[in-house]
Amino acid sequence: MEHQSRISRRMSQSAVIQAIANYGPTSRASVAKQTGLSKQTVSEIVANLEAEGWVRVVGQTEGNIGRRAVVYEISPSAATIASVDLGGTKVRVALCDLTGKVLAERVEPTSHEGGISIVDQIVRLIRASTDAPDSNFGELRIAVVGVPGVPEAETGAVLMAPNIAGIDQIDLAGSLQDRLGVEVFVENDVNLAALGEHWLGNPGDTDDLVFISVGTGIGAGIVVGGNLLRGSTGGAGEIGFLPFGADPFEQESLEVGAFERVSATKAIIDLYASKSGQTADVPSIFEAANAGDAAALTTLDEVAKQISRGAAALVAVVDPSAIVLGGSIGIREELLERVRRYMAMCCPKPFEIEKSRLGDHAALAGGASVALTHLHLSLFAEGQKGAEISVPPPDIAYFKAGAS
After folding, report:
1. Residue 316, SS3?
2. Pairing state of beta strands 140-147 and 183-188?
3. Contacts from 134-140 at CB under 8 Å and sequence distance 24+?
4. Closest Cα to residue 19, out of 404, 392, 366?
5. Res 355: pLDDT
6. Cα-only R_g, the chain
7. What does the pLDDT read at residue 346?
8. Which residues lie closer than 8 Å to 294 by C-beta, 6 or more apart?
9. Do residues 189 and 146 lie in contact, with contact meaning Cβ atoms separated by under 8 Å?
10. Domain architecture of the chain: domains with CATH
11. Residue 343 and residue 335: Cα distance in Å, rounded?
């Protein structure tokens, strides 16, 4: 009986905090109406939440019979979460409050030493903000790290991440958890970017979208029915290994991916060199194309055709409502325009490709949404089986408010 009472209390608390998160500032009477709980039950739960600092009074509003009703909202400073975007060239750390607003952001080149030095770097960047003398952040409660590979649940190693040395030799989540003293989740960075676009940037407010990231490599995050599609081993969306583009039976294709060999950074650099006899980095090739350089224009056309083939394959298999193109290369207008044009030529039905609205904050936004969802569940649902809490997204400008 006591067990049932405890479960009921958890469910009621979860419903109340969800109502305040979604409709706040709101009164206790409104919460009771939204949840179907009695006004007395809501008042008791809200009083406890206020005493513990999770909700706060933000004013009063006129009641139905002229009396003023106290209104509540989630207390932003009650807790802090960390969202980390670990890339082959940069590591970006954002600290967010309980509403998803970025309080502080730090970026620096990824440690070339790899392995455990990556753990040291992430911890240092997080502590640099949380331990700053002028910091008034809430207690750090949880961290989510996006990685350019596939986290292995059994060992904590990150596989298929050739751009970060030694990350497949350590328990990344476990090491960070030991150092930070909080729960840590590690997720593929493109998956997080897809969740970020679904949470904040969502074109057409759809629950079915594919995010394609083109940068150092190429990958996809797939959201179906509002949920991330991970696959049996977490490798769903590793489209760099689609067996077309380059010869999929060559050794390099087994290590890098046949499709990635014709669609990402190295492909652009190598293709331009073969056509022009010159070596240039990707930004310079885009500049040359904009200046009318024939070799650069042909390079972008051919790479865009390859990306369009991959996007068309995803449309045929997943049938999403939207495809969002992002990443340091994918977000370039010169490439986006070409991909749209070639998609129209190879896809049997009209299909619009959108540009990422979040840019280099997409994975950070996804990490924040995952962290906040886990935190709300652990705090207010207390791990009850089957509990669901959807954290309402902040405005994009509000989310980036503390970004550097």
Report:
1. helix
2. parallel
3. 135/104, 136/77, 137/77, 137/80, 137/95, 137/97, 137/103, 137/104, 138/77, 138/78, 138/79, 138/80, 138/97, 138/98, 139/79, 139/80, 140/79, 140/80, 140/81, 140/82, 140/95, 140/180, 140/182
4. 392
5. 93
6. 23
7. 92
8. none
9. yes
10. 2-74 (1.10.10.10), 77-193+361-399 (3.30.420.40), 203-359 (3.30.420.40)
11. 12
CB 186 within 8 A of CB 168: no
CA–CA separation, 118 and 163 (whole Å): 12
3-state secondary structure of 122: helix
Residues in contact with 355: Cβ distance below 8 Å, sequence separation at least 6, in sequence order:
324, 325, 326, 331, 333, 336
| pLDDT tens readout for residues 227-247 | 999 888 878 999 999 999 999
CA distance 231 to 140: 31
Contact assessment for residue 200 and residue 163, using Cβ atoms and an 8 Å cutoff = no
Which parts of the chain sit beneath pLDDT 70? 1-7, 61-67, 203-204, 382-390, 400-404
Residue type present at position 134: D
Residue 173 has what pLDDT?
A: 96
Q: Which residues contact 335 (CB under 8 A, 6 or more apart)?
A: 214, 300, 303, 304, 307, 325, 329
94 bridge partner residues: 83, 105
Task: Please tell me the total number of residues recorded for the chain in this structure.
Answer: 404
Number of C-beta neighbours around residue 112 at 10 A: 8
Q: Please measure the distance between the N-terminal and C-terminal CA atoms of the chain and give it in whole angstroms.
A: 52
Q: Phi, psi (5° rounding) for residue 341?
A: -65, -45
Question: Angle at Cα 106 formed by Cα 104 and Cα 111, nearest 5°?
Answer: 155
Residue for token digits 């760099």? 240
Nearest Cα residue to 361 out of 369, 372, 353: 369
Retrieve residue 85's tokens.
Answer: 């975007």
Are 167 and 118 a contacting pair, CB within 8 Å? yes
**Contact yes or no for 86/110 (Cβ under 8 A):** yes
DSSP 239-299: GGG-S-SS-TTSHHHHHT-TTGGGTSHHHHHHHHHHHHS----HHHHHHHHHTT-HHHHHH
The one-letter amino acid at 109? P
CA distance 209 to 202: 8
